[in-house]
Amino acid sequence: MVPFPSVTLCPQSKCKVSVYNFTKTNIQLDKLNYHYRLNGSILNETMIKEITKFYGISQICDAFDPSYVLEEKYRYTDSSIVEDFLEISPDYEDVFSACKLNGNYTSCTELFDKVVTGEGICYTMNSLAAADILRTEKLQKDYLYLNSSKKIKGWSLEYGYSYENSTDRLNPSTSYYPMPGMPNRASPDVEIVLREYHIRDKLCNAIRSGFKVYIQHPADLPQSSLYYYAVLNSQVSSMALSFSILNSSDRLRSYDAEVRQCYFPDERYLRYFKIYTASNCMIECLSNITYEKCGCVEFYMPHSSSKQICTQLHADCIKMAREIMLHRESSQGDYVCHCLPSCNSVDYDAEILKTDYNLQKLIGTYDAIYKLPDKETLNSYNYSKLEIYFKKPRFLSMRRSELFGIIDFLSNCGGLLGLCLGFSFLSLMEIVYFLTLRLCCTLKKDLEEEKNERMQGKEIHVEKY
User: Fold this and answer.
1) Per-residue pLDDT tens over the stretch 297-309
2) pLDDT at residue 435 in the model
3) Secondary structure letter of residue 179 according to DSSP
4) For residues 133-153, b (16+ Cβ closer than 10 Å) or e, as one string?
């Protein structure tokens, strides 16, 4: 009844040395910069383009203080920065060794899609199609934020899955999208063997290894955050998923969103997103504030133009934009994001257990027996494994509803009056009855009796005479 979360993997190896040597380029630019400054020369167009590319790529590498002073018009980049990321980042064959879904081997290229995040180029599974999450007609057309094209099938954010027959319930992973969660079985729902090339750039994120893993709802645009799970080399990372569900009664629609502190899916319009979630709202808000303050946006932020993309030269301004957004949200001023939670939401969490994973040792054993032809290629990588499954087959859910409605209020009023005064609404009807209908009937009866008595008195008087 609950979708399997969207899982996003971000390699910590950001740059393939064979394609772009970040360290070598840094040393060359430092020497050229010193030479140009020493001789008082002006940087030529080729140098400026190379420096701009370097500062664009440095956003996903270790941050450092810029040493080049460029004119304002050269301090920005454009959609070419994402093309550079796609060129230099590890591709499928550099990241994935094998993938299994529900115990069966599957193609990693079919299971995972590329997505642009603050970590650079990452890979995500079970995310909705870009056309289902984003208003593509409002966005720039020079590059894609999300490559997923798998359309929604048999599921909605508000009402969940619509199982039509028992056969669909037995095998929902092939009949519905996003993929539903499955009860615990003999093997994990998802098993991924990951690999990282031995030779890495010495300056580009060299102090971190392995992969960052993010889990989010399939309706959220996959993005990086401070909260992540680590998959380290030569280890098996076993993730036991859990989740919390919060639903809201339709009777709450009559209340203002600020009162109930949540939005229904059709209540809040976002310029760049079709689906409202708090995460999507915050991304759009940060994009707008960053462009307002810095005159550019970061490469992963949805925006209508790709001509003004920030580089590492704008790191301080981007940090200031984030602080402004947080300040505006906390102060509740005239311009705030109002990114309230969704009224119907699923929040995921996980526990992770790590054990050793000595695949290289197994490769050596197989080579000794079978003489593997590609032993050198296999040994040029560090391997790790990620297993994902639900911790329990059932979880408790919560429902938000009104504590006191009009009917509840009237009932409580009647109860209090009955308790304090011996009064009930039946007593009220009796009072009305005695003051109106009973009084009229009594008066009418008295008048008829008086009339009958007068008539009898006249008859007696006539008989005497």
Assistant:
1) 999 999 999 999 9
2) 81
3) P
4) bbeeeebbeebbbbbbebebe
- Residue 368 near residue 24, CB atoms below 8 Å: no
Q: Phi and psi for 136 in degrees, rounded to 5?
A: -60, -25
Q: In the chain, what are the domains?
A: 6-21+75-400 (2.60.470.10)
The token pair at 384 is: 């790790």
pLDDT of amino acid 311: 87
Determine how many CB atoms are found less than 10 A away from the CB of residue 95.
Answer: 23
Helical (H) or strand (E) element with 104: strand 104-106
pTM of the model: 0.83
Would you state the pLDDT for residue 448? Answer: 83
CB count within 10 Å of CB 372 equals: 15
Top-ranked range on mean pLDDT: pick from 67-76, 251-260, 293-302: 293-302
Structure tokens at 2: 């609950």
pLDDT confidence of residue 428: 75
Find the mean pLDDT for residues 362-366: 73
| Amino acid sitting at position 258 | E
Q: How many CB atoms lie within 10 A of CB 436?
A: 10
What would the mean pLDDT of 227-254 be, rounded to a whole number? 92
